[in-house]
C-alpha cells in the first residue's frame, strides 16, 4: 500500500478508486473521532468564531462530508453511521462545500480528508488502486 498523504483531489477520483472493506459504521466512527480530535487540538482555522460557537455540530458536518467525498460512502450509509437522516447528511455536505471557498477552512478539511484516507488504507479497511 502506497502513502496517500499528498492527495488533494476533491473531484471524487480518490473515493472512486478506494475500495472499502470496512463497515460504514466503523468508518464513520473513525472519521468522526479524527475530526473532533483535530478540532480540539486547535487545528481549526484562525478566526472561525462561528465555527467555535457551533463546535460539535459543524465538526460533525465536516466528518459527514469527509465520509462522503473522501471515502465515497453513500448518504444513507453515513446517516446510519452518525444516527442521522440522509437529508441531514446532504445538508451537511452542502454546508461544508460552500465554506471551502475560504482557503484556511479548505486546508483544514483537506487535512482531515488526507488523514482519513491514510488511516483507512493503513488499517486495511480499503485498498487504493
Report a brief summary of the structure.
The protein has 129 residues and is mainly alpha-helical. Helix content is 66%, strand content 5%. The chain has one domain (14-42, 56-128): DnaA protein, C-terminal DNA-binding domain (Chromosomal Replication Initiator Protein Dnaa, Chain: A, Orthogonal Bundle), CATH 1.10.1750.10.
Please characterize this protein's 3D structure.
By secondary structure, the protein is mainly alpha-helical. It has a single domain (14-42, 56-128), classed as Orthogonal Bundle (Chromosomal Replication Initiator Protein Dnaa, Chain: A), CATH 1.10.1750. Helix content is 66%, strand content 5%. The protein has helices at residues 13-17, 24-40, 49-69, 75-82, 86-99, 103-122; strands at residues 18-20, 126-128. The longest helix is centred in the middle third of the chain and has 21 residues, at 49-69. The protein is globular.
Amino acid at each position: 500500500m502506497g502513502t496517500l498523504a499528498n492527495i488533494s483531489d476533491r473531484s471524487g477520483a480518490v473515493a472512486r478508486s478506494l475500495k472499502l472493506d470496512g463497515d460504514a459504521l466503523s468508518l464513520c466512527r473513525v472519521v468522526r473521532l479524527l475530526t473532533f480530535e483535530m478540532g480540539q487540538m486547535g487545528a481549526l482555522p484562525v478566526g472561525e468564531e462561528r465555527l467555535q460557537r457551533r463546535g460539535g455540530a459543524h465538526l460533525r458536518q465536516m466528518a459527514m462530508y469527509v465520509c462522503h467525498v473522501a471515502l465515497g460512502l453513500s448518504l444513507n450509509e453515513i446517516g446510519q453511521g452518525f444516527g442521522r437522516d440522509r437529508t441531514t447528511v446532504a445538508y451537511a455536505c452542502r454546508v461544508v462545500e460552500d465554506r471551502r471557498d475560504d482557503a484556511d477552512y479548505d486546508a483544514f478539511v483537506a487535512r482531515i480528508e488526507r488523514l482519513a484516507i491514510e488511516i483507512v488504507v493503513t488499517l486495511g479497511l480499503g485498498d487504493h488502486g
